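Hello Y.,

Per our agreement to keep a running log of every chain we model this quarter, I'm adding this entry. I've kept the format consistent with earlier entries: sequence first, then predicted structure.
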Amino acid sequence: MTDKPIYTTKNFFVQKSNIPESGLGLFANRQFKKDEILGDYKGKLLTLEDCDNYKDQSHMVDITELKNIKYAAIQPGKKMLLRYINHAPSTVNGKRVKGKKAHNVKFKNLEEYPYVQIQAIKDIDKNDEIYLNYGASFSKLFLRNDKIRDFYSKE
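Predicted structure for the entry above:
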C-alpha cells in the first residue's frame, strides 16, 4: 500500500483499492475479530419508487427481504465509510477466492433500525482491505473486467 489515505478514523482508512480499476477501498486501521460488528450501514431509507427516481444508485443496499419494513433500500451518505467496501467474488474460473482477497465481511440484517450492519466473517488484520460479496449477479458483472478477473485469479 503506497497510496496515502484520503480519510482516516480510529477503525478505518480510505485509499485506493488493491483491486485494479476499482477506485477507493476501505481498509482496517486496527484488527477486527471474527463475528465482530464493524458498524451500522446507515443512510437514507428509500421506497421502491424512491429507488427508481434516485439519481445516485451506487452503494445502495437492498433491504426488501426484511419483514415488516416499508423501505426497499438504504442509500448511504458520502461520509458513511462502510460504503467504500468493495466486492470480492466467491469464485473465479471455478476456483475459490482465498486469503487476503476473499470477502471478509457480510451484511447482518436486523429487524429494526439501522436494519443492516457489517460483520466480520473471519479475523481481519490491521491494513487489510475489507471485502464483501454482493452476490452472484454482481460477480458476473464485476468479473467482465479482465484486470479484475486477473487480480482475483492470481494467488
